[in-house]
Amino acid sequence: MAARRTAGRTTRRADDLGYGREDLGEGGSDEAGRYSWTRNGMEILVTAAVGPNTTKKDISASFAMRQVSIAVEGEVLFDGIPGCELDVDECFWEIDEDDDGNKKLVIHLAKRGVTSRWPETLLKN
């Protein structure tokens, strides 16, 4: 485990503690099963199945440092305070396909701080 000296003390680097780029692993899903999310280092990937006729015009997304809102065809997927502050310029969404050819919405939520770790829930509220 890497360590560094800071003001006469030895401290562990954030990456060694599972923060920043090392914030990896399962995230969870919402209670209704509409989306799931995973921790991928400096970003959180949220995945939601969408209908076969869903287009970019059907997606409404708003990213702010302390607020995120996603709706599909007018129905709110999630809306609230994200688990970490967001780097808004690096957040985006895309429509993709899963391994079976079904359409899915993939939302990329980029964390603002390299020493941050996403909590157990996607949203704080």
UniProtKB/TrEMBL annotation:
Residue ranges occupied by any CS domain in the UniProt entry: 30-122
Originating species: Cladocopium goreaui
Region (Disordered): 1-34
Name of this protein: Catechol O-methyltransferase
One protein family per Pfam: CS
Bias-annotated ranges (Basic and acidic residues): 12-24
Basic residues composition-biased segments: 1-11
InterPro entries: CS_dom, HSP20-like_chaperone
Superkingdom of source: Eukaryota
SUPFAM superfamilies from the UniProt entry: HSP20-like chaperones
